[in-house]
């Protein structure tokens, strides 16, 4: 399954990138985020790997993030591997005027087992989740609004 989402963030690109790259900020814009642990490689560089943990409903989810390409501030490509799901995400950051940034997120999901059934039955849920994270990041980056307070 492939799809693309985009959002305009009313901040300069450098500020957007700085807030997005900081793992301390993940809890403020990724609902269910529990922890981040660097596993290998040079943080932020190609082939760096990190473990992320989330609580989604009653399920605990662990995934491994691998940086595939880092050409910031313009591009950041990553893959996320979890049980039954691999998400390849290509993020693009375009300057819009002097003080805004367009974030485009191209996603490709490969699912197996139970997750393949979920993807077939509810493909919109993946798109909705991606866009929710994008909107929550925008609210955090622009106004300091944290999902922890919701």
| Rg over C-alpha atoms, rounded to the nearest angstrom | 15 Å
Strand count, sense and barrel status of the largest sheet are: 7 strands, antiparallel
Mean pLDDT, nearest integer? 92
Strand proportion: over 45%
Question: What strand line-up does the widest sheet have?
Answer: 1-7-6-5-4-3-2
The number of helical runs is: 4
Q: How does the helix and strand content classify structurally?
A: alpha+beta
CATH homologous superfamily designation: START domain
Shape: globular
Q: Say what the CATH topology is.
A: Alpha-D-Glucose-1,6-Bisphosphate, Chain A, domain 4
Distance between the termini: 30 Å
Number of strands: 7
Protein name: SRPBCC family protein
InterPro entries: START-like_dom_sf
Question: How would you portray this structure in words?
Answer:
28% of the residues lie in helices and 46% in strands. It has 150 residues and is an alpha+beta fold. The protein has a single domain, classed as Alpha-D-Glucose-1,6-Bisphosphate, Chain A, domain 4. A hairpin with a 3-residue loop joins strand 6 and strand 7. The protein starts with a strand and ends in a 7-residue tail after the last helix. The mean pLDDT is 92.
């Amino acid at each position: 399954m492939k799809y693309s989402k985009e959002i305009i963030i009313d901040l300069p690109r450098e500020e957007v990138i700085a807030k997005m790259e900081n793992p301390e900020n993940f809890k403020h814009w990724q609902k269910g985020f529990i922890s981040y642990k660097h596993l290998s490689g040079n943080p932020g560089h190609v082939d760096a790997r990190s473990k992320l943990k989330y609580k989604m409903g009653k399920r605990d989810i662990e995934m491994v993030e691998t940086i595939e390409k880092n050409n910031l501030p313009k591009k950041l490509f990553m893959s996320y591997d979890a049980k039954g799901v691999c998400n390849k995400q290509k993020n693009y950051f375009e300057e819009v005027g002097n003080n805004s940034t367009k974030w485009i997120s191209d996603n490709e999901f490969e699912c197996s087992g139970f997750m393949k059934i979920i993807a077939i039955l509810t493909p919109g849920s993946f798109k909705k989740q991606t866009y929710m994270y994008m909107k929550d990041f925008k609210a955090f980056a622009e106004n300091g609004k944290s999902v922890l307070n919701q």
